[in-house]
Design a protein that fits this description.
The protein has 425 residues and is of the alpha+beta class. It is 33% helix and 36% strand. The chain is built from 14 helices and 22 strands. A hairpin with a 4-residue loop joins strand 21 and strand 22. The radius of gyration is 23 Å and the shape is globular.
């Protein structure tokens, strides 16, 4: 009897120690994740998934990290593991659905969303039955398009559903292609119902899910495109000036290409990469000595974020958003005190409403291989952005910064390549 009691106590003690160690590791991984240290968090989650397959927090954490890194197979696998452990939880299934969506498997994404109450989105996804989303037809590997303007954001001309031309903004900060509702009617876009969300940096915007047949951009035609439609008169009252903006090419569209932005030359280029050999060929053309490399992550809502160090201490994420007008580097006001940025408060008027706008000087800002010293920043209230994620989004790197650089957006390799200054000039 004594031996049985001793064995029981040993087993209980071992289980308690193991559980305590696992809980400690989970807490550490969660802390890393909340700080934006995704690779460090993923390493711990991965070890726990192998040693403790029934640990829900580890499976979900690994799925979150994999989705951010766009490792879609892992995002789905660990999301499914988590969902099997806790079928009533929605986040694991949302991760699985997003993984299928990014892979263009709209049929599989629809099956998962059917259990999440996304009726309008399901209608849109089901409309793609038998179709290949974002199918590219072109005899060219690369096409170059003139920038109609680079102020206050990059704008190009495209043709939709045949002969309907319109000016579209290039915007990595918007997850999907968006059409003005009146333009959508003109091009006879299919529509499936309304939802609310964030478009062009504005929250709680009413939009309608839709689909269009084609977009002709330069020498390439892209077919079977999911879209949103929205009232642009409310989105662009102050920023578009005399331009009639008909649409936004968001991340979902742009990520099917390698994007070359050459604002100083007044043009952008899109390059198709459909095989591993083609991507290898592209990568071999890039001389690392000529570019700064900035890795980025991708939120569940298809928004690009990159890790930064502000004034050498604060490790945070900044959103990469080409569609934000007039923003070079913007810092969340609550991060200012932590990073000890000196700033002056000024007041301006927007639509006859007083708005506080602050500007300051950051001693340093680092993202990827780029280090900027004594950089002018705008201090803004990014509350809606900051509170959307389980990690800190404390700033925006906008078009105002990128427009003075030759930049390559490598959506496959999850990196931004910024051309280094020519020191020989």
């Amino acid at each position: 009897m004594k031996k049985i009691i001793i064995l029981f106590l040993l087993c209980f003690f071992s289980f308690t120690v193991f559980s305590s160690e696992a809980e400690s590791d989970i807490n550490k991984a969660d802390e890393y994740f909340s700080q934006g240290k995704i690779h460090e968090a993923e390493e711990i989650y991965n070890k726990l998934c192998q040693s403790s397959p029934t640990n829900y927090a580890a499976q979900l954490g690994h799925s979150r990290c994999a989705l951010l890194m766009n490792h879609l197979g892992c995002a789905f696998r660990y999301g499914k593991n988590a969902s099997d452990l806790k079928p009533s939880e929605t986040e694991p299934r949302e991760n699985m659905a997003v993984a299928y969506y990014r892979l263009g498997r709209f049929d599989k994404a629809s099956e998962i969303y059917s259990g999440l109450g996304r009726k309008v989105l399901i209608k849109k996804l089901n409309s793609f039955k038998g179709l290949e989303p974002y199918k590219i037809d072109s005899d060219e590997v690369r096409t170059t398009i003139k920038l109609e303007t680079a102020e206050p954001f990059p704008v190009i001309k495209v043709s939709v559903n045949g002969d309907y031309e319109g000016l579209f903004i290039l915007d990595t900060g918007t997850p999907e292609t968006v059409l003005d509702k009146n333009f959508a009617k003109r091009v006879k876009a299919d529509t499936f119902g309304k939802e609310k969300g964030t478009i062009f940096g504005k929250d709680n915007i009413s939009f309608e899910h839709g689909k269009i047949d084609t977009i002709r951009i330069g020498g390439m035609t892209v077919s079977n495109i999911p879209v949103y439609t929205a009232d642009f008169s409310k989105l662009f009252r102050e920023t578009s000036g005399s331009m009639k903006i008909e649409g936004i090419l968001g991340y979902g569209f742009l990520s099917n290409f390698i994007l070359y932005a050459s604002p100083l030359s007044g043009e952008i280029s899109l390059r198709t990469v459909s095989t591993e050999d083609e991507y290898k060929s592209f990568s071999e053309e890039i001389d690392p000595a000529d570019y700064f490399t900035v890795p980025f992550f991708l939120t569940r809502g298809n928004e690009m974020v990159t890790g930064t160090r502000l004034n050498g201490e604060l490790c945070v994420f900044f959103k990469v958003d080409l569609g934000q007008p007039g923003i070079g580097i913007s810092v969340e006001k609550n991060a200012v005190q932590e990073s000890q940025i000196e700033y002056d408060l000024t007041e301006t008027t927007s639509q006859k409403v007083p708005v506080n706008i602050s500007e300051g000087i950051a001693e340093s800002l680092e993202f990827g291989e780029i280090k900027l010293n004594r950089i002018k920043v705008r201090i803004t209230d990014l509350g809606s952005i900051v509170n959307k994620y389980p990690f800190p989004i404390n700033g925006v790197i906008g078009w105002e910064y990128f427009k003075s650089n030759e930049t390559i957006f490598d959506f496959i390799g999850m990196r931004i390549l910024v051309k280094k200054p020519n020191t020989d000039e």
